[in-house]
Structure formats: C-alpha cells, structure tokens
Design brief:
CATH superfamily of the largest domain: Carboxypeptidase-like, regulatory domain
Number of strands: 7
Distance between the termini: 95 Å
Shape: rod-shaped
Structural class: alpha+beta
Number of helices: 1
Order of helices and strands: HEEEEEEE
C-alpha cells in the first residue's frame, strides 16, 4: 500500500472542502430560484370625489405597517409590501390631504387599480 505524504492529504482536504462548499451554495441558490417570494402591492390613484380630478401629494399610510407613500402630481401611488401576508389578510389604508376628509378603508392586497375618492371639507 502506498503511503500518502502531507501535501497529498492537504490537497485532498481542500478539494473536499471546495466540493462541499459548492454543494451548499448551490442548494441555497436552487431553493431561492425554485420558490420565489410572492410580492404584494397596493397601487392606484387618489381623486377628488366630486370632480374626479387627481389629487397630488396626498399622504398614504397602512395601519400597523411601516410602508407609506405620497401620491405623485397625478394622484398615483404604488406601495410594495415587505414581509409576509397570510391568505386574504386585509390591510387598513389611511389617506390624508389638507382640505379633504381623511379616507380610511380596508383592502386586500394585491390590488393595482384602487381608486380612492376624497371628499372636500
């Protein structure tokens, strides 16, 4: 039987470590590709209830969550929800704009065509 020297043992250990590391990284990559995380969105437009005109710079917040937004000049908004949501979980959306009554309703994400009418004071 042939006797292995120290160099051969070190090379074998390094090779084995490289193969195991590649397998672990590959397994983690495969899981992330095969099971993409579902993204939930609340998006739409804020308008004046009477004239249907867009309301820019309205503040939008979500009850119990950190996500918030300010509508663009055309009243549009898009909030991407981080974290996980269970099933048909409803989220309370609160919209404020000076000169208008606050809007407060529950929505079920994902919704991308929400029209939020604000009523003038």
């Amino acid at each position: 039987m042939q006797k292995l020297d120290k160099t051969q043992i070190v090379v074998a250990l390094i090779s084995a470590t490289a193969v195991i590391t590649a397998a672990v990284i590959g397994a983690g990559w495969w899981r992330s590709v095969s099971a993409p995380r579902q993204q939930f969105v609340i998006a739409g437009v804020v308008v004046d209830q009477t004239s249907n005109a867009a309301i820019g710079q309205a503040r939008i917040s979500l009850s119990g969550r950190t996500e918030s937004y300010v509508t663009d000049d055309l009243g549009n908004f898009r909030i991407e929800l981080r974290g996980s949501l269970s099933g048909e979980q409803r989220i309370r959306i609160h919209v404020t704009k000076e000169g208008y009554r606050p809007y407060d309703e529950a929505v079920t994400p994902s919704v991308e065509n929400l029209v939020i009418p604000l009523k003038k004071l």
